[in-house]
Amino acid sequence: MQLEKVYEPQRFEPHWAQWWEESGIYEADPARPGKMFSIAIPPPNVTGSLHIGHMIGHTEMDVITRYHRMIGDNTLWIPGTDHAGIATQMVVERDLAKQNITRYDLGREAFEAKVWEWKAQYGGNIERQMRKIGDSVDWTRNRFTLDEGLSRAVREVFVRMHEDGLIYRGEYMVTWCPRCNTALSDLEVNHEDTAGSLWEIDYPVTGQPGRVLTVATTRPETMLGDTAVAINARDERYLDLHGHTVQLPLMNREIPIVLDDMADPEFGTGVVKITPAHDPNDFEAGKRHSLPIIQVISPQAKMTAEAGAYAGLDRAEARKRVLADLEAAGLLRAVKPHALPISKCQRCATIVEPLISKQWFVKMKELAAPAIRAVETGETVFIPENWSKTYFEWMYNIRDWCISRQLWWGHRIPAWHCSDCAGITVARETPTVCQHCQSANLIQDPDVLDTWYSSGLWPFSTLGWPDQTADLARYYPTSLLITGFDIIFFWVARMMVMGLYCTKQVPFRQVYIHGLVRDAERQKMSKTKGNVIDPLSVTEKYGTDAVRMSLLLAAPPGTDIIASEDRMEAARSFANKIWNAARFLFLNLERAGAEPWSPAEQPSYRPEAVDGAGPLAVPLAVPLEDRWIFSRLNHAAGEINKAINAYRFHEAAQLQWHFFWDDFCDWYIELKKLRFAENSGLNAHWRNILTVFDASLRLLHPSMPFLTEELWQRLGTHEKKSISLAAFPQFDPAAADPEAEREMAALQELITAARTLRAENKLDPKAPFDAVIYADGFVSSLAAAQKEAIEKLANLQLTLAPASAERVKGSKRSTPEFDLVLAVSAAQLDAQRDRLRKEIDQLNKVIASSEAQLSNEAFLAKAPEKVLASMREKLADYRAQRDKSQEALGEL
Fold this sequence. Notes:
- The protein is α/β, with parallel strands linked by helices.
- It is built from 28 helices and 29 strands.
- About 45% of the residues lie in helices and about 15% in strands.
């Protein structure tokens, strides 16, 4: 029970992180009885490191998992990582580039081997960090989205979907990243509003010298691939041009004028160019009018041979040349400033290119319907509920999902192309012959599946699906998903779709969405702003428990989370308070000659009656402070259980903090100190203290696992191996003691009144003062019974008098129930009056100066609003201070 003087979490946190895993206490057993609770971790990228957004999500998941384990549920938290196709391939390609090697130099098989080598060497970084912060996951079930079992599940789903006609292959307009050299889904693209230009270009009308149609474009380089211009059939300006053609500038090519509603007579000139190969809307218009498709920009963002004289140029250089040539030809009519959204690859920030490409797609409308119904009917519930609107918005407007990626790292599409008949064979295992013509000349499709395809199977593939395993039967559907709002589209919706398609059940019963982590100024964290908090450095500095507690306190549902080192410093002070309280108890227990002791587990807690030793005890009675603290413990247990079950993590943290610091440390231990001198051995006093301390640690454990495990293990021999397995305190209506809480509230008010008077009058806190309490009835009886406690904790020599008695002179505090007078000397009163007068004079000067500034029109016009708000706030504080000092002076 010997505790070091200083709280240094770095000394014991690594030990418990390792012991928790090696002891196997978090390993789930489907055969174990009890209600089921399961949760799957959102698999972080194998390339990743823990960031502050992970930290809040992992902390909330750990709190809820530890809680369910402690209330006796059969609990499973599944860990794992995502292979992160584009991200991982980019990292490895960058490493190879340093050696002047490309993936094409190595070839596919050798490159994939390199990526596996990289994963073995660096890929476990985030898992090591998860262990470091104490994630209570079942590491024996750790999964990776490219491991053998999950790969089999992916192939199974692809084949089933293909057999059900839900997967098809076709040429469609996709968003293409020239750097990553792959198609992207809409969700993998960031849109940035940019100041650009709108160029107006004249297209000469064929056979009508001098007549032109003027079109406006933000991408003049794509005009080289125009195959038509469109006008609206209702636009009277161009009725005579129906069925005519124009000359495509720079390309000496005649293209038709078509009638289409995409041309708006009210917008611009009412004429638009159509480039089916390079714009999604133009692609659809091209299909309507059977226009040819001319691709002038390659997947590498270079101009193709179809671009004529501009072939081989980078797209940006081609734009410059095209504009220069148009101007030289007198066909560039105008250039106007124009704000437009630029689309960039989320991974590498390269400007993406709309290109027509042959890709694999999933038909989503049919699959989305049951996923929509499941949320509408409450099979799956979003918390906070408003996030269901975001989910519905995407699901109601869902488009077919492009699932193929032109990468080498990932789940290769299980489809084989026949070199003889061009047929495609889709199969679970590698086929030996074409299913159409029996040819053996088969080549597997080179593309891999979108990373989110395998991630969408995560809740059930990690439990052994498609096999009907014991884990799947016991732990699916999972109970809860905790994630950020930014991947509701990417991941949550797709898991719903995949779960219902594959298992006919929702993948999770509840989805808790936490907010975005922001800095103290409520700014989004970013490296460019320099306001990023590295969770690993702050856990090293303040301790993991302190960082966890600071994040929990700042995380009300439905709001962004404010992370600041000031909060972490405060949470470290709380952890230090817990440590010092434990050290104080252990030292005094040792001095009392008592052995370490821990209470037996019990559903609720009752104090023992104590023997009548010492002036504060009543023979064979339960002291007030014991009755009160056990009632407060019972109340705290009830409120904390309710808060955790409602995912109100901030409330649970506030309740834990308040009970331990305010109730247990500041009042209960202070009252118990008065009994230490009169008691020895492991008597009822100590058993009551240690019972409450043990229960307090259990209440705190989900939020602060390391510190509570360290202290709980020092208490002595327990029924359970770890505090993680100990019972979480529960509320018992029969254990409430409202009378004790009423009595204690009155006692606290008496002691606080005395302390406040001392502080306000700047009296020496160590010097005892005579005081008189004027009261009748309940307060009078309580003060008489607790006279010793009041005297010790307020440092008074106390006299009790009836409420009607004449008041002595002194500093007074009045309440409806009692008056408390500190009987200070005349000299002390004079000194106090002088001090208050000087204080009031000084405040008056400061107030006058502030009021003058805030009434100066010139100053008000120049000063920032933030500065003015601060000044007004300070002025209000100065006035309140002055009023308080004047009131105190009046009383004297």
